[in-house]
Amino acid sequence: MLHYLRELFYALDFASMSAAVLRVAAIILCMTVHETCHGLAAYALGDPTAKSMHRLSLNPLRHIDWLGLALMFVAGFGWAKPVPVDLRYFKKPKQGMALTALAGPVSNFVLAFLALLACKAILYMPYSDGCGLAFSFCYYTAILSIGLGVFNLIPIPPLDGSKVLAVLLPDRFYGTWMHYERYGMVVLLALSFAGIGTGVIDAAINGVYYAMSMLLGMPF
Hints:
Layout: H1 2-11, H2 14-44, H3 49-52, H4 66-74, H5 93-123, H6 129-152, H7 160-165, H8 171-179, H9 181-194, H10 198-216
């Protein structure tokens, strides 16, 4: 039995395992920043709901939806626990909701830029295993954060892009549009498994990544 366990231990691919752990950590960071910034935006606009429910926190356990996290690996996208927002606190409800929604993707693009900046700084350090792990984590964070930001700008409920688009709708249609949020996730899952739109999304992610890399003078 001991011999079997020893052979099993040596057969494990620890390089792949460490990469998987870093990806999970990067995904959790991206989602946590995204949701926290939704709450901060709403609070800045006068809505204390997220604050009262302790969602203005970088503690990932306050934001993780475990099913949504699992689907990040199965379907290529997922979700965190939505930050509660009460439109009644906003002076201009539609505009307030749009700004609150937009704060999530914007925070992901800022996080991605900072992660790439960290990658560039690490390249100037003497190589070590620690530097290699830090570089991988920052790189995964940048790519995943860009992906999360781009994906959430799709104007399909309940994604953030739908709330931004809703600003352009007449008031009489706004409630109806928001009502269909509950069906949007089913549509998104169907589109994802069918591979519809993935080429456009990938092109957008690559475009944002390339633009940030060029701005920072990155060699990759």
